[in-house]
Amino acid sequence: MMTTTADLADDEISDAERVFDELVAHEKRIEPRDWMPEAYRKTLIRQISQHAHSEIIGMQPEGNWITRAPSLKRKAILMAKVQDEAGHGLYLYSAAQTLGITRDTMTQQLIDGKAKYSSIFNYPTPTWADMGAIGWLVDGAAIVNQVPLCRASYGPYGRAMVRVCKEESFHQRQGFEILLTLMQGNEEQRAMAQDAVNRWYWPSLAMFGPPDDQSPNSAQSMKWKIKRFTNDELRQRFVGMLVPQAEILGVTLPDPELRFDEETGEYAMGEIDWDEFFEVLRGNGPCNAERLERRRTAHEEGAWVREAAAEYTRKQALRAERQAA
Ligand SMILES: [Fe+2]
Ligand SMILES: [Fe+2]
Fold first, then answer.
1. From the CA of 85, how far away is ligand 2's center (Å)?
2. Structure pTM?
3. What are the pLDDT digits (tens) for 51-71?
4. Dihedral sign, CA of 244, 250, 254, 258?
5. Quick one: pLDDT at residue 162?
6. How far apart are the C-alpha atoms of 202 and 250, rounded to whole Å?
7. Which residues does UniProt assign to the signal peptide (predicted)?
8. Domains located in the chain, CATH noted
9. 85 CA to middle of ligand 1, Å?
10. Ligand 2 mean position to 211 CA, how many Å?
11. Could you tell me the distance, in angstroms and rounded to a whole number, from the CA of residue 55 to the centre of ligand 1?
12. What are the C-alpha distances in Å from 107 to residues 52, 64, 130, 132, 265?
């Protein structure tokens, strides 16, 4: 059972808080049974549920290409990849449930348009090369973001991330390999690959969130050891990973200002279009309405599966009861 602040007297809260602070300070995990500050619980519910929603909505842009993948092998790989994302969503919903929110509530928040998910999935996937660019850039950014989350102070979240990260690295390589194949093809294929990189590069950099000086919640998350690095630090790390890989691919990263600054030891880069980022976040991206509508329909169409599962559980329990009697 989880202990919430409401169950405790004032002096017990200060004791519980001291234990919590010590656990976090000593890199020990906070588990569902432990007392935790309400703000920590709320922050985690928001972050983990948004993360879960992103995995689930993220199935759509690639799902769009399953029927049109250029070969049986590509189709099988893409199906496995999209299925992995469904699994990530499920681990994460389960992790969020340990904090006292139900799966139904989270699903309702998503289909009512009240919950956020990563803005990147509101961009369209008009060509096959988008499958390459998403794997390379979007899953690539996800890895950079998520590897440090394997050490998140909240146990169920950190453990879910370990499994997720292993699969993300397969996703990133399959995307890279799609782009590599296209870049070794004819002129039209190379142009298609470059065009997809042009469209996904900036939104993938925006995935790390606003610059540090405009990210008010980061400091608290770092204090709680949910987050380990700032948005800008992670963005730097990501660009550092992309530059040599872009060279191997033979694609150009669409930022004329991008260069390694020997003095600072960091990449200098052009300005991200934050106005666009916030517009998409507010729901005005090219595919926001379509993504939510699809999710809503899928939920309605899946009602009979949920009912059947509930009925099966009911009958199993009844049978167990009779056997025990
Ligand atoms: Fe994922
Ligand atoms: Fe992925």
1. 6
2. 0.92
3. 999 999 999 999 999 999 999
4. positive
5. 94
6. 18
7. none
8. 18-324 (1.20.1260.10)
9. 4
10. 24
11. 5
12. 10, 22, 28, 29, 44
